[in-house]
Amino acid sequence: MTPAGAALEAARAIEAGGEDATLRLARWTAGYRPQAGLPDEYLDAGGQARGAWPRLLDRLGRLPETEIMARFVSAERHIRDAGISFRIYGDQREHAWPLGSLPLVIEAAEWRALSEGLIQRAELMEGILADVYGPGRLVSEGLLPAAVVAGSPEFLRPLHGVAPPGGRYLKLYAADIGRGPDGRWRVLADRTQAPSGLGYALENRMVLARTFPDVFHDLHVERFPAFFQAFRDGLVAGAERADPRICLLTSGPYSSTYVEQAALARYLGLMLVEGDDLVMQDGRLHVRTVSGLKRADALWRRIDGDYLDPLELNPASRLGVPGLIEALRNGSLVMANMPGSGMVESGALAPYLPAIADRLLGEPLRLASPRAWWCGDPDGLAHVRENLDALTLRPAATPQRGAGRDAILGPHALAAERERVVAALRDRPFDYVGQEAAPLSTMPGWERTDRGLRLVPRPFALRVFATRTAAGWQVMPGGFCRVSERENVDPIEMRLGIRAADVWVLSEKPVDTRNLAQQATPRVRRIAGHLPSRAADGLFWFGRYVERAEAVIRLVLAHLRSVGDAVATDMTGDADAPTALRIRALLEEWGAASAADLPTAPLAQEALIGREVPGSAHAHILSARRNAAGLRARLSGEAWRVLADLGDLLALDPARDFTESQLLGRAERALSHIAALSGLTHENMSRAAGWHFVDLGRRIERTINTCAFALTFAHDEATPDCLGVMLALTDSQIAYGGRYLQGVALDPVRDMVLLDPYNPRSCAFQAEAIARHLAELPAIASDGIPEPQRRLASRLLAEFRSGEAADFDAVRMTALEADLERLADSIAGRYFPNGPHALRPEKLAGLA
User: Fold this and answer.
1) Do 111 and 505 touch, CB atoms closer than 8 A?
2) DUF403 domain spans which residues (predicted)?
């Protein structure tokens, strides 16, 4: 039972005793005590409720606690079904997105003041970048030490003097903020490199607004669409072409924030690409697609600037595009944010910001940072040494990750740590910044107890976003909030023990939902955008792995039924019978079982759920999910839910011993899930290039598997038992029985499973589908000569159309298997970025 499910049971017990809204709210808030010296969002220094919190809690208090908890259970289920997840840095596992139960609520008036300060801060960062990559007046006038600029690893010299296409270094600015001891908001860290969290803020909003639609509407919560439309428009400001192609550059599915990147690409209609998808040609950036090279006009990068171009920046990078900086020099590519913009994240810059703001903006900072001293400055070093026990010491040369993650020394450090830091300050003082202690303020969070819910104060950090538009900066009315589940843990980054919270900015009047996004009507089109080669590769192998899992499951079912249900299937019921031995041998050959002589149940268990067995059904589904992880913008939510259910169905504890009956039931349900997934693929996917590649993968893999089945169970000396298994494996028993009344025979079985164009499981049916798919895919050559993959597919189709059942002996079937593998390689060589020799995602995971 999930935590929300357990709390739901406790809530039911309370509601059974009777409790009205007043008593419920009193129970929630009884004992709520903020920590001494820390500002709190709910209670002010005098213990009075403040801001928008009374409105929120009063509205929630009208709901029975059982209903509230039931909604949480529904939200958790939706998060799991939708595949919303995150990775902890350095961890390959995906964790379900930990959405908190309460939003952070802020009144409109307070948000307006906060937005003004954020816009001023964004303009300041833009001005600093324009100066340090341009005239350098801040250094020459003594407002900024040269060492702070030149010593930063994020100051990229090849970008000096390069004017940003579109005129702006920053298209998106973010800041981590929290309340200081005086109750005012202050900036804990600036985010200008490649700010993350925007997609998770969107996911938080979609889930919580779906969970509490009535509360969301009644409190007049500001909406997001206008901001995202403005952000999309700002991405292409300055592009050369009127109908620009926008790409979101990711480091790939193993990025800790890949899920949010895919969500943003889907929501904003961007092309999600990796470095290998891109290439420079004629001074312009292009995307490798199945239709050839297509120009990219704007790039929203989600990798660090230093990794963008191995020719001019970091030569060890495998994430970027050789020669990319040239596209910035000649103005043919708009980028968000410009490489090198991460320099203003440096902690060494903080002590000089107030003076720089006076110089560049002519006014003091509205959103200040905790006071800081750079130890490369003699006065700053002297202050840090004198007050070392009261300060937090941080790196100066690396961008700040937040208010606590990169701390080298805190006020409560051990003596040994202090000695080490004193030595470091003596040897390399310019590497450090001293900062006054900045404990985070708190907000209410629900704690689930045996008596239901109660409110407790929890530390939080809020990330807010601003985008540059033609009319100036626009702030998103909300943000991305991280809340700690414990009092003494700073929620600086997403990790275990940290929950996310939606941010509700409450309007003073009802929100007009008629014109949320002020946008021009898009031009009507029916042709989908071009499919990147990498996406085609992932879709193709997604289809192949699902089909491989199905083939293994059908083999397991055939074995369990032939051994345990002989009367019903007219078989011997002997685990050592020739038919059963052939099934066992094929499972071993495919790597689905470690040995063919295992007892029936252990063998079936290995083939279904074996985690360390590379050919098991579970392993193939995991491979399919890894491929699908790169395709989140292309698969429907229903398909994700079925895939998640299928993974859970096969994710059994391998240490347990399951009975044959249990395994049989599990295999049958798994087969039903695969059938549902296939149906969703056919019914929900647009008939664009992506669908062709998914179905191509399945058709080719199914034909290969059917040839293998025929070699094993429809050979020249096949027994009725073997032929019965052959029909079962190809799901053709009903069709065969309706056509032939005298029982199974070799040639009729071969004809039905190999040559019958009306049987959707036959090789001939697959060959016709393969030929149609390839005919629909774009051809690069315009000479009228079919490309190699089309010629090979035509030969295979002709062989199945013109052949006779008696001709398909072992030699011919073996040759057909080899031709099908060559066809798959030919498709890969034509359409995929690294051809047939590309490492599959599961191999990449093993190398990481």
Assistant:
1) yes
2) 531-832
